[in-house]
Amino acid sequence: MSRTTLVLAALLLASCTKGTSGQGTTPGSAADKAVDDATDSNQPLTLSVVEGTVIGHDGQPLPLAHVRLLGLGPGLSDETRVSSDGAFSLSTPHAGLARVEVTGVDHAQLTMMVVLGKAPLKLDIRLGTYERETPLPTLTATVWTDDPSKSRPTQVTLAPRKDGTYAAEIKTEVERVWYQVSGFAGSRIVNGPRADAYEYDGGGDYRSIVLPSNGVVRLVVDPRQLVPGGRKKTVKLGDPQAPTARIGPVLALAETENERVAERLHASNPSSPQEAQAVVSGYDWRSVRSATLRALDDEKHPAVRRAILATYFDLGSYDPSKATKEDRTRAKELIGSLAADDVGWRLFSTAMVAAAELSDDPRDRERLELLLDKSLPPMLAGEVLFTRIIEASLNGDAQSLRNAYTRLRTKRFAKTPYFFVSKQYDPDRAIQAGQKFPAFEFAAIASGNPRASKTITNEDLTGKVVLVDLWATWCKPCVAEMDNLHAAYDKYRTKRKKRKGGRTFEILSVSVDKGTAEVSKFRKDRFPMPWMHGHLNFDDAGELFGIAGIPYAVLVDEQGTILATSPRVNGASLDALLDKVLAEPAPK
Q: C or N: which end of the chain has fewer Cβ atoms within 10 Å?
């Protein structure tokens, strides 16, 4: 399970569900000796302490910031709020490798791998900020009027005003409103600049909490008051000879290389997951791999070696049949005994799986499969199996897909998100190319025409090539596809373009919003969507289409035969796909 696979998984899973590095030092420092006996065995010491300071990009303390230790053993969880002067301290009985996560209002999330032991680990951290587009694109506020962990948000456009600000007003009867803003922090959804309080969102950023005044909440974003974009993070270790100091440079090198791959992927604008796979897997990883191995050759500390090995096995794609003898030996060192409670599963599971599959001992591969089915935490094992499903789907390997799907669809994984999302890859699903689109009856969304039908059925699609698009106003990836849908509709619908064979094109958008009023308001305020519209509740849509998330699209021909589905049908591929389909003669 490589970094390549994770990039592709992110590409395929950009959807909404219902629930919505070091070298050059000599081992032997005090910190080294303190953890020698406990690093890889993960046996508890008296206490491991992490302490230091967290400040913002400008050197000032933050209104709210946290430091967390991740990847600890079962039942171990450590988090502390940074004090008003920027200081923090937390302790844990865990020793060895762990991950530190640092978050702060208005700032970018920071994570780093560390080695914990008897000697306190001192970190002085200056958080960076997310990159920002100039000028700002359309800003959207995600708004909750009830507990965000239990309720679905609404999307509100922040309209540009003459004074250069972006604003919206929300009438409400609730005591407080939570909101985040998307559009000025890259792909992240982050806290808004105006708040009476802040709350951590569980994913590396914060929500703003505002109190209504006279039943109205006013959301205002002034670009001139936002923190500067693109400020770089800095981390200073109290002991520059500590094992942690030798991990950072290696991880930073890998991070830089993966950013280059992501930039290449973005620039290529792939029209299908297969094209994306070709771009990423074709990248030349030799330089960064060589540098990683040089760092490994200079390292003696077992925990640091494991961190470097994990980095190495996360670079690019590995074909076990072509792996070198040296790589198989390194794989064995990384996976160790493949114990279910190994810290590696919690810190670098993708590298652990890749290494187990590369090991020259077939018993390691057998042990891996046993761990997936029985011993590893369901969330972790489910991620591995779901990634295999994606790989098999991309590679057209029907047997491997069925095998991974069957294993994932068991009671053991029933409470994981992978259990639900995997429905879209059911080898026997009704919605797939070559099958007939199932019978349906959607409630039509009023078009203003009193003679318009109140329902939409299969008969309304007969004789046309139809793109059936499942979406919701609250789904950000769905809204992101709107420009592509409008462009396709303007280019290919019958009234705008006659083509050989007389094939016509239509779009049917099926909303899974709570009601139809949201759709009508969205079409009035944001995108006109001048095509057919239906409504279906989320559960019924999941039952009919066999899906767990949106957006989801199905292209159907004149006779109701499915031509293609998501992920092949997406914004990037739609124009080329329609151009090909509509140029061919209609089926007789």
A: C
Distance separating alpha carbons of residues 290 and 287, to the nearest angstrom: 5
- Residue 309: phi, psi to the nearest 5? -60, -40
Report the Cα 299 to chain-centroid distance in Å. Answer: 33
Task: Tell me the pLDDT tens digit for each residue of 131-167.
Answer: 987 788 778 899 999 999 888 888 888 989 999 999 9
Closest-CA residue to 429 (of 288, 552, 302): 552
Residue 171's Cβ-count burial label (10 Å; 0-12, 13-18, 19+) is: exposed
Mean pLDDT over the full length of the chain = 85
Per DSSP, the three-state class of 122 is: strand
Q: CB neighbours of 433 closer than 8 A, spacing ≥ 6?
A: 562, 563, 564, 565
Residue 333 burial by Cβ neighbours in a 10 Å radius (0-12, 13-18, 19+): middle
User: Which residue's structure tokens are 């309720």?
Assistant: 151
Per-residue pLDDT tens digits for 411-425: 999 999 899 888 888
Q: What stretch(es) of the chain map to CATH 2.60.40.1120?
A: 26-129+231-244
Q: Give ranges for CATH 3.40.30.10 in the chain.
A: 441-583
Identify residue 208 by its one-letter amino acid code: S
Q: Are the C-beta atoms of 562 and 431 separated by less than 8 Å?
A: yes
- Tell me the CATH number of domain 441-583, given options 3.30.450.40, 3.40.50.300, 3.40.50.2000, 3.40.30.10: 3.40.30.10
Query: 79-84 — which CB contacts under 8 Å span 24+ positions?
Result: 82/54
Kind of pairing between the strands at 505-511 and 532-535: parallel
CA nearest 271: which of 23, 543, 577, 7?
577
**Phi then psi for 19, rounded to 5 degrees?**
-80, 50
Burial 534-547 (b: 16+ CB within 10 A, else e): bbbebeebbebbbb
Structure tokens at 303: 């925990």
Q: Is the pLDDT of residue 18 over 60?
A: no
Distances (CA, A) of 198 to 105, 192, 208, 394: 8, 9, 5, 41
Does residue 427 have a cis peptide bond before it, meaning omega lies within 30 degrees of 0? no
pLDDT band of 17, cuts 50, 70, 90: low
* Residue 378 pLDDT greater than 70, yes or no: yes
Give the angle subtended at the CA of 64 by the CAs of 252 and 164, to the nearest 5°.
Answer: 90
Give the count of alpha carbons within 13 A of 489, CB side only.
Answer: 19
For 213, which DSSP code? Answer: B
Task: Copy the structure tokens of residue 585.
Answer: 């003669």
* Residues 361, 342: Cα–Cα separation, whole Å: 19
Burial of 437 (0-12, 13-18, 19+ CB in 10 A): buried
The two structure tokens encoding residue 275:
């094209």
Is the pLDDT assigned to residue 224 strictly greater than 80?
A: yes
**What digits encode the pLDDT tens for the residues 56-111?**
999 999 999 999 998 776 656 689 999 999 999 999 888 899 999 999 999 999 99
**What residue type is assigned to position 270 of the chain?**
P
Thinking of the domain 26-129+231-244, which architecture would CATH place it in? Sandwich (2.60)
